[in-house]
Amino acid sequence: MHTPLSAPRGPLPEHNEYTFRSLLELEHQRCRQSGEGFHVLLCRLSTQDGTRFPMSTPVKRTLLSAVRDAIDTADEVGWLLQDLVLGVLLLGINPARSVSRTTETARIRRLIESRLSVAHPSSVLQFYDFLDLPPLE
């Protein structure tokens, strides 16, 4: 019997702003046509006093790594607002089940915050949770 070989899969690359906005638009159109919602998380770092945290390459890598470790492999990740905000399109969460959605987003937030508190203790995670639902008829 011949066993097929497969290359190890690493994390998928994050999308640039143009591609991620296109994915969000496609998901919004799918939402309107299917009647099913979709879920987006936005992560931004600030300092303790609320000003923008410097998004150097190491900081961006840490945030991206923390997000990837917290989400499902099917979810899409991309940068917005000139790499100041990291967006996550959660494809594995059923938006209709709000209890599981709330629990899952709280779990994701805790995992990201725990990683950032070690790597960048002066940063504050600003976490925005959006649920896009189709229009009521």
Q: How many DSSP helices?
A: 3
- Strand tally: 4
Order of helices and strands: HEHEEHE
**Major sheet:** 4 strands, antiparallel
Helix content: 25-40%
Order of strands across the main sheet: 2-3-1-4
Taking all residues together, what is the mean pLDDT?
A: 82
N- and C-termini, Cα separation: 56 Å
Low-confidence stretches: 4-9
| Class by SSE composition | alpha+beta
Q: Per DSSP, what share of the residues sits in E-state strands of 2 or more residues?
A: 15-25%
Q: What is the 3D shape? A: globular
Q: C-alpha Rg, in Å? A: 17 Å
Q: From the structure provided, what is the oligomeric state, counting identical versus distinct chains?
A: single chain
Can you describe this structure in just a few lines?
Residues 4-9 have low confidence and may be disordered. With 137 residues, this protein is of the alpha+beta class. It has helices spanning 17-34, 57-70, 98-119; strands at residues 38-46, 76-80, 85-90, 124-132.
